[in-house]
Amino acid sequence: MPTNRVHDCTICFSSVDGNKEYLRHIRQVHGNDRLFSTHCPLCDSSFIFTYSKSFLHHFRKHLSHPLADQEEPPLLFSNDDQMKVDNCNEFEHELLSFEIETRDPVEELKKHYTGMLLKLREGHVLPGNVMKTISLSISCLLQTFSDGLLPKLNLDIDNKISGDYNQHIENILFDISRNEHSFISSCQMYFKFVKPIEISLPTGGKAYYVPICEVLLNLFQKNDLYNCIKQEKHYISQFQGQDILYHYRNAEIGRQHPTLKKKDNCLLLQLYSDDLGVVNPLMGRSSTHKLTTFYFSIDDLPARHKSSLNTVHLLLLCTRNDFEDQRNRRILFRKLSEDLKHLENNGLILPGDVNPTYFTISTLCADNLAAHELGGFTCAFNYGYCCRYCLTNHRDMKTRYNETQVLIRTTTSHDLQVKQVRNVPGDKKIYGINEESILSILPSFHPVISLPPDIMHDILEGVMPKLTACLLHTIVSSRLCSAAQLCRRINKYTYGVNDKQNRPPPFKEKDILDERVPGKAMEKFCLFLNLPFILYDIVEKIPYWFLYEELREIWDVLYCDYPRKSWLSTLEETIWEFVQLFQTIYPAQFIPKCHFLIHAARNIAKYGPLKRQMNLRYEAKHHLLKQIANRCNNFINLPYTISRRAQLRQCYELMDNNILKPDGVSGKFCKRRTISFKQTIQNAFHADYRFNYGEFVQCVKWVTLDNVRYKIGDFFVFHLMGGEEIPLFVEIKYIINIEKEWRFIVQLYDTVVFKQNLWCYELSVADIITILSQNDFVTHRAEDCYTINNLKYIRTPYRLTLVE
């Protein structure tokens, strides 16, 4: 509802006295917000402004209108009622006056300047010495501004009061940006900077630990995060005892977790560990600095928000050499263990709560090498007992295709084997265990149940590229296509709008002959999904193509958001058949990751959706740390430099009132008459009884809702039909905003048939256009529709489930 006078801030909801006070508040308090997001309180438009400059320009246009400065027309009250209203207004005015009088402009200046430096330095990852350049430039700018303003006010340029005040402001700017210590002190005062704790190691090195309790308290100061987690916990509870495994809490280990069983008000923390290589550009690759990193994230966040990098937080950082030394490891995790025990036993009283909220570990994600090292298992994967799920020797892996043929590790058997290895070190080779896990001092951690598989390394960078390379080599060897022609097919293939960002690098003939697939994990995945379309005309002639179909069937369950327990027996049989056939047809390409695949069905039952245990987003966080190291160009004490700057970056991300990305951000609004649409769309307007569309509607080309981007031309699944859950697809034609609600005008498509050799659905256009809301979509991921020989084909990202 538009108003002529603003009483509350539309971002932080604090009281303001009129439009000019609101404008000043937005400019000074929220002008540097990282996630600036607000609507205009003076007009009917639902457009969300994400840039403060454009919003201030828009708001000043309203102020230039004479009606904007007028008070709202008084209501007709009785004398007594009017007296009460006047008294109330007088009290509010006195309160606002008191707030203005108690406001310290110098403190506000310090806070805004510190926030500006944070936004510039950490938002763009600039070197620390840029602060001095900024402070000097602002000082010169203020002096120039004063020299121009004073003559306008009929004051002398050499006015002593003005000169003293400018000097005072200049001293403030230089005090904050004098050095790194003074800047960090200001960040601690105004933005709750969490300083890493230095840990001195016996070898003389130093590690840096970020206090997890302080970070959690800062995170839960953000209402949007806490409310989102509460809603997600309630949503997770709906699947307890159901066939669907939506979350770790619904799986076997989650239901048996001792802390979750004892304490209802408990949140889960997911840890991650990996090595990180940073190269000194002045000395080349021979001077690579290897670091060991630990991160954490809140496991109870919805999947759509866990994909954001600002939900991944640094926990521990040290050099690889220091981490490898046995004397250092216990000291490294001592402080973390103390904090985790405090979180499990005492908890934290979060803002707005009376009772404490407890925290405990769910899983520790890592690649196979890091998981084996942290769990105390053997770290060699080319001989011995190199599987952390079962006791199978490397030489026997090619003949074991099912879990019934192997001996599964359990917590009880593992503890007995660790004792045996401790007493008789020569028995390490018998059990594939080198030592007791270095993380055994952490509460609720056990190496058998706390180290889940990572389908990114096992499948996307393991089995998938192996099979892709084998099939491409088979095509060339069977003379269906030459290596040069096959490279041209792959390199000239036109990827869809959504697939284009993960387009694989150019293929070379040598890659096909050497049976390897270049690129990153998502680029290999993109090639694998589009392989049937690339080879459309010869796909039925390719020998052993059934292996591709079986792996796609396996992947659709492994990557599913809502896997069912009833699927797991079929999944186990499919994996058994795939592993046996792959080993028989391509024995030289069989790797331990193919053996790890036989445990996938049981791991889904243990951990829930394996998609939530992927390392993909954690590894994306490495890019920031590498960028910090290269921009700072200081390699003397790299863990200190990176940990300090990473915490400053976190401080920058938490300086706004909200941490999650703003909702309803869209493209430019465009008014359109309802009668200008096609008659079928006008009929859809009339059929939608929820809204009165009126004469005009506001259209946009794209909009972001719940961290999902919808744009015109995207395809989504909106319904699953029948017991086989056949997906029905829609294409977004228009995106409209009506009464602050988003609606999608969509074209329906009929699902003709499922093409198994292409592993996709064939579509035909239905003569139906309807209007849907965001909640009507089954999936919240846009898919590309490919047209081949005048036929439309589309795939689903994973196996879909009808969730009631």
In short:
The protein is of the alpha+beta class and 804 residues long.
Provide keyphrases for this structure.
804 residues; alpha+beta; 6 domains; 8-stranded antiparallel sheet; 6-stranded mixed sheet; 15% strand; globular
Mind explaining what this structure looks like?
- The longest helix has 24 residues.
- The strands form three sheets. Strands 8, 9, 12, 13, 14, 15, 16 and 17 form an eight-stranded antiparallel sheet that branches. A six-stranded mixed sheet has the order 1-2-5-4-3-6, with helices on both faces.
- About 2% of the residues have low confidence.
- The chain has six domains: 45 residues, no CATH class; 87 residues, no CATH class; 227 residues, no CATH class; 60 residues, no CATH class; 158 residues, no CATH class; 130 residues, SH3 type barrels, CATH 2.30.30.
- The chain has 804 residues and is of the alpha+beta class.
- The relative contact order is 0.09.
- The chain is built from 28 helices and 17 strands.
Q: Give the helix/strand class.
A: alpha+beta
What's the rounded overall pLDDT mean? 87
Given the structure, what is the number of helices? 28
Strand tally is 17
Helix fraction by DSSP (H/I, runs of at least 4): 40-55%
Shape label: globular
Note the quaternary state here: single chain
Our Rg estimate from Cα atoms comes to: 30 Å
Termini separation (Å)?
A: 35 Å
Percent range for β-strand residues: 15-25%
Unreliable stretches covering 5 or more consecutive residues: 67-78, 94-101
InterPro entries: Znf_C2H2_type (IPR013087)
Protein name: C2H2-type domain-containing protein
Organism: Rotaria magnacalcarata
Domain C2H2-type: 9-30
